[in-house]
Protein: 2-hydroxyhepta-2,4-diene-1,7-dioate isomerase
Amino acid sequence: MKRARIAYKGAIHEASVSDEGIMTLNNGRTIKENEAVWLPPVAPRTVFALGLNFADHASELAFKAPKEPLIFLKGPNTFVGHRAETRRPADVTYMHYECELAVVIGKSGKHIKKEEAYNYVQGYTIANDYALRDYLENYYRPNLRVKNRDTCTPIGPWLVDKEDIANPMNLAMRTYVNGVKTQEGTTKDMVFDIPFLIEYISSFMTLGKGDIILTGTPKGTVDTKVGDEVVTEIEGIGRLINYIVGDEALERKKSLGIKSSSNL
Structure:
């Protein structure tokens, strides 16, 4: 099943979708997809993000693939929903997308073995974890200014149940900028796969229901500009649409009292 979180007529709803694109809200009402304001399909708790988890992406950044997972944390301020706007700061010279498979944890656990890892997964969604490369300090420390900007991580549209994804480690990944395909890869090329990551993280801390693991991106990242439409797509999960805007657009919304989907 595909599930979403949306805002509609001043309230937040959970929703499912039919093959015809009709959304059924948790109160039984049905609406069309274009009538909803899309929110992150899961309210993020602790979010673990993998750096350089695809060897080809590490190579295009002139790094070697890590021998141990390179993980950093992301704050809830970074997340916005499907069809939301992401701010490109005026002083940034290189800001690229990152199409990533997001693994949503379904129940709490610690010291989870690889063989049991998928028992702790609720489902999967798509994340586009933008990076502001101007501020990358070094290989070991992807600092806050690179990956924790407000609105810098669209996520969604759907949370897809794990039972509906036969093999999450063999899914095609693509990104399109203004309709042109700029990135293509597959989850099978991850350096550290999903069971390994769940075992690794849970070996020293508890993974909780609603935690999310962003599993990294393949090669093919390019700079994005104000006005671009960026679509990140993962086989079997969907297409996440996002728009790049400048400082003026978000400041104008702020002055009008319009909240972004990350504030809902």
